[in-house]
């Protein structure tokens, strides 16, 4: 539903009364007296996107804006109202003390939860009353009797239908709400986490926050919803870890979930904080799991793909190397990783942030025994905050952190020992940060080490201007540069998390984020197609001899759309020649095997390795990658060799999908033989491919992507730009 925002007219009644006002005492709306100049102007807007009619359990959100019209600082003091998050009797409220002369500020905590009583009345109208004061306590009154009322909102006398229960085929970036403020007994929901279980179920986790929308030590619970059909529908939410409400001495809660999947064992891990009476700001030092003044580190696990969860295990002492200097360690929400390459393949890594001698640092927490034990690496940087880690194409870990202490850009550091230590922390000025938790993943987590596919990263966050306008960005070079950005959510948007999905989960990428009014938990799926790139790979597994070779090329469509006339355009070193081939049809998720001819000059020696570049494209120029062909034999002097063909070998300019993986020449109907040669009696200066009319280029492969919008991007050696 399209977001609707209503501007509510300011009504001001000037009064010199010093008595504290009640809502009943506010005079009716009327114009200012002639010549009167209000000290404080107040307006109010609805900031939710629930529409003209709402349901029982909906949370109506408001943004209140106030301006100091005087030449001295004043306090915007909320005197009365029927909204929560408004009055100073609550910890989160809309008082703004010491509002500078001429300055304008906003408050976004005011809201109302629609009740059965509201439904019986048929509508709800927000009422607020304000005064301008010299002090923060509201007693030294400069102006009184400022009232701002909202429009009446119609109420449907039932709970809002939950569309996430109904299996629905949705387009890329067509979001569905997994929960919203007020639903199912919780005041609000925040902090998204997302992963794919080993069996292909999609696991979404988030905070359920009772009583208020506060972080820890609010007695929050961790909720989980599961999709068993690739995100088309979700089962009702369950409490994976339950907090406990009560007095300050009785309460405890769990907040800020992050999910890690062990693909080797199938076990899921859910990290969170556990709090009693203290949170991030005022946690004591120490590692005693029963110390109610220490913010604890908790982990639970599931061995049945998220259906049930273990009891919380407190690992505070395990991951605190210096209890006298480290405090308030918390798992940074979203998702962790399992490493795939090199010495540390199989390692589970979850990022944390913590106070380190009074400064905020990051740290990698890791396990090499499938979650039996957890260890902390060395502290990373200062002025850090919620951070993510991604494994790059060579096995290096890149840490990407939200800045604290006033930073404006993401902070980056690299580890070459699986997260145990990191190098210098630098700012990535290509990634402005609006003080927000972001998502970061490798687009193809199972790509071959060092391949072009392994270098592709996806990043999600809000716009540089603040927590609004959610953006996805893509990198083709391990995060060295970032290509164009794509808007996925206009308006309010805060925390987000990305997760790559394999075929069992329907493919593409999951995106789980906080939408309007912070606590509307939105899930959607996107693809590289939606981002504007051609998600097609090509590969060749063939050794060559001098002379004419026929090699097999497998072209795979990893996207969600069908493509036609996909061209594989090679280029080779001087003296080598190869033909361009085309796949006439390439269905979503399918592969086609085609054959192509590669001519190797007789000047090549056994053991030579030729470096070549290639491009995959449709009707647009694509991005070139690189690869190699190795010479294993030379032709005999009469131009023939043991595995050579004759000139009767047909050209292959289109290929069909072959589900059993064999190479089918669709021009002739004959199966192409790997490494077959054409005994062409060509001279050194002749073109052995001239008879076929094909272009002089090479066929090799790794992963290639073509920009559907023609933006220049770099993979491998060269870039092609749309003409």
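^ Assign residues to that structure.
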């Amino acid at each position: 539903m399209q977001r609707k925002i209503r501007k509510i007219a300011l009504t001001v009644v000037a009064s010199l009364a010093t008595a504290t006002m009640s809502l009943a005492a506010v005079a009716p709306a009327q114009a200012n007296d002639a010549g009167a100049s209000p000290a404080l102007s107040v307006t109010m807007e609805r900031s939710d996107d629930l529409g003209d009619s709402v349901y029982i359990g909906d949370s109506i959100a408001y943004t209140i804006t106030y301006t100091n019209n005087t030449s001295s600082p004043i306090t915007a003091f909320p005197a009365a109202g029927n909204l929560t998050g408004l009055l100073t009797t609550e910890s989160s409220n809309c008082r703004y003390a010491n509002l500078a002369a001429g300055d304008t500020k906003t408050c976004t905590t005011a809201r109302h939860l629609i009740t059965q009583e509201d439904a019986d009345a048929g509508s709800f109208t927000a009422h607020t009353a304000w005064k301008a004061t010299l002090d923060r306590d509201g007693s030294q009154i400069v102006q009184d009797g400022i009232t701002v009322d909202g429009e009446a909102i119609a109420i449907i006398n039932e709970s809002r239908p939950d569309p996430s229960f109904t299996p629905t085929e949705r387009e890329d970036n067509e979001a569905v709400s997994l929960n919203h403020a007020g639903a199912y007994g919780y005041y609000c929901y925040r902090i998204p986490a997302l992963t794919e279980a080993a069996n292909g179920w999609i696991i979404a986790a988030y905070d359920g926050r009772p009583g208020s929308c506060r972080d820890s030590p609010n007695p929050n619970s961790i909720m989980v919803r599961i999709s068993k059909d690739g995100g088309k529908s979700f089962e009702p939410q369950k409490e994976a870890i339950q907090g406990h409400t009560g007095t300050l001495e009785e309460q405890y809660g769990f907040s800020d979930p992050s999910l890690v999947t062990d693909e080797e064992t199938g076990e899921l891990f859910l990290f969170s904080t556990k709090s009693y009476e203290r949170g991030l700001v005022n946690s004591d030092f120490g590692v005693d799991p029963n110390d109610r003044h220490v913010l604890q580190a908790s982990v639970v696990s599931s061995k049945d793909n998220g259906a049930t969860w273990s009891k919380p295990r407190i690992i505070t002492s395990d991951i605190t190397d210096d209890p006298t200097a480290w405090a308030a360690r918390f798992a940074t929400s979203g998702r962790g990783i399992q490493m795939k390459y090199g010495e540390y393949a199989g390692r589970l890594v979850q990022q944390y942030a913590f106070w380190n001698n009074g400064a905020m640092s990051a740290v990698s927490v890791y396990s090499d025994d499938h979650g039996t034990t957890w260890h902390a690496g060395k502290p990373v940087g200062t002025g850090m905050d919620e951070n993510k880690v991604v494994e790059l194409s060579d096995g290096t870990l890149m840490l990407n952190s939200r800045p604290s202490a006033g930073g404006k850009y993401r902070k980056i550091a690299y580890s070459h020992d699986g997260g145990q230590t990191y190098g210098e922390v630098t700012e990535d000025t290509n990634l402005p940060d609006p003080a927000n938790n972001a998502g970061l993943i490798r687009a193809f987590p199972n790509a071959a080490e060092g391949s072009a596919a392994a270098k592709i990263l996806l990043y999600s966050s809000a716009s540089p201007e603040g927590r609004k306008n959610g953006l996805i960005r893509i990198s083709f070079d391990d995060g060295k540069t970032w290509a164009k950005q794509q808007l996925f959510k206009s308006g309010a948007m805060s925390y987000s998390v990305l997760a790559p999905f394999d075929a069992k989960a329907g493919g593409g990428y999951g995106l789980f984020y906080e939408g309007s009014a912070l606590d509307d938990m939105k899930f959607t799926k996107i693809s590289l197609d939606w981002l504007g790139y051609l998600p097609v790979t090509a590969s060749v597994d063939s050794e060559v001899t001098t002379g004419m070779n026929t090699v097999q090329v497998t072209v795979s469509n990893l996207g969600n759309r069908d493509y036609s006339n996909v061209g594989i355009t090679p280029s080779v070193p001087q003296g080598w020649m190869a033909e361009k081939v085309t796949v006439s049809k390439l269905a979503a998720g399918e592969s086609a095997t085609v054959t192509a001819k590669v001519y190797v000059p007789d000047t090549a020696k056994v053991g030579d390795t030729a470096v070549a570049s290639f491009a995959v494209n449709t009707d647009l120029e694509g991005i070139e990658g690189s690869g190699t062909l190795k010479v294993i034999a030379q032709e005999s002097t009469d131009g023939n060799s043991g595995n050579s063909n004759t000139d009767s070998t047909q050209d292959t300019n289109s290929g069909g999908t072959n589900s059993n993986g064999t190479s089918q020449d669709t021009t002739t109907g004959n199966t192409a033989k790997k490494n077959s040669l054409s005994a062409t009696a060509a001279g050194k200066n002749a073109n052995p491919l001239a008879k076929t009319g094909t272009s002089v280029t090479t066929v090799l492969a790794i992963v290639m992507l073509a920009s559907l919008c023609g933006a220049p991007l770099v993979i491998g050696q060269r870039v092609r730009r749309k003409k």
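The chain has three domains: 40-159, 182-531, 534-631.
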